[in-house]
Amino acid sequence: MLALQGDFAEHARHLELLGTPVCLVKTPEDLRGCEGLILPGGESTTISRLLESSGLAVAIRDLVSQGLFLFGTCAGMILLASEVVDGRPDQIRLGMIDITVRRNGFGRQIRSFEADLEVEGLAGPPVRAVFIRAPVVERVGPSVAVLGGVRYDFAEGEALSVPVVCRNERVLVSSFHPELTSDLRLHEYFIGMIQSA
Question: Is 169 annotated in the active site?
């Protein structure tokens, strides 16, 4: 669990409820023995600066090539994307999943919303998704599978369906905050990705 900034404590609680050991990662040394890493929601430019100053950006890139799995939610999705629209020029892009995202694409805090989503691979009722200053996926590369989307009215009378849950072989991302509800299924899905490798 990347514990530099953001809502990492909520993610940690979900993992603990699933019986998964949690390591709070603040330095490259904290990554030793980790099979997966969650990059939480928070402020993407702040997390970006802390990733660089701590040396974690380089360490994460190196460990992915050795088998590390990643799960990015909201700001974490922005950090893992290959391309960011409306991001700061000096913001880190780890480039671990071939998507283009737009920061705050659904609008500012006042436009926060919740929606029920069907997510491929998750049995049971729809996932209740909480979107807070969430990124919008504008492009999905050929190596990326879209697991779920949401219909959103970006302009009056102009509702569009956009991807909000995507994955490739080792990376899972969501525009929303699965840690803010009691539904553990997306965290369980990520654990399953690691266990099936």
Answer: no
